[in-house]
Amino acid sequence: MDDAHRLLREGRFEAAEERARAAVAKREGARGRDRRPMAVRQARYYAIWAAALHGRGASVLPELEDLIADLEPPTDASPLLLRARLTRAWVLIDEARPAEAQSEAEAVLRVLTRTKYVTDVWELELIALVCMADVLCALDRHEEAETIARGHLPRAPEHFAFGLHLSLLHSLSGQGRHQEALDECDVHHPDSSPADFGAHEFATAGALHGLGRHDEAKEQARRALTACERHLHPDHPRVGEIGALLARMAAA
After folding, report:
1. Which residues neighbour 70 within 8 Å (Cβ) at sequence distance 6 or greater?
2. 50 FRET partner, CA 20 to 30 A, in 14, 98, 228, 232?
3. Could you report the per-residue pLDDT of 89-99, keeping only the tens digit for each?
4. Contacts (Cβ under 8 Å, ≥6 apart) of 147
């Protein structure tokens, strides 16, 4: 799956999904299922993950749940299973089902707490913590989200720091602390992944809007929308959120 992973890093989500699905089809060809079923499951996960990152999580949610059911035996500590469950949590956030997303993220963190002294799970733990912070923001529990983000940002490498930083920005604005959020936008801006196109500009627009600086907020929101429209699917939740913010500002 190296090619699919490379395509994802480049933001070529549809190409990554196509490559992963081709790998599944090749291994499940005319002569039956591959003798290495985990390779098939991994390719299926990459295809689903690519679709979710692109903004088509709702369309692949049934397939993701089927994969999770297929992965569950014999152990709940399989790294691929834990990644699939966290992907499901993010899709549930996007589908306005944050309570279910919370249950999923908490379950993953419990597994990681139980196994972290046996194996190296720091990367999965950071992914789960980013997910939990996003869940708490979706539940309007912004102070708890801020605690997670601030507590783990110092140890997070760049590719995880961006997710925690976004959670911090949203948590501050969610508490009405828009100037602090804006200050954070300027002070610390880690490198993002392709799936986060437009996310930092959108968070900045929200902080500016909260401060009543509407012209600057509109400029940032339009920049965010342009980035999303260039790289993400039209159904991506961020596209709708940015459009809703622009509509609120237009009506103000």
Report:
1. 41
2. 98
3. 999 999 999 99
4. none
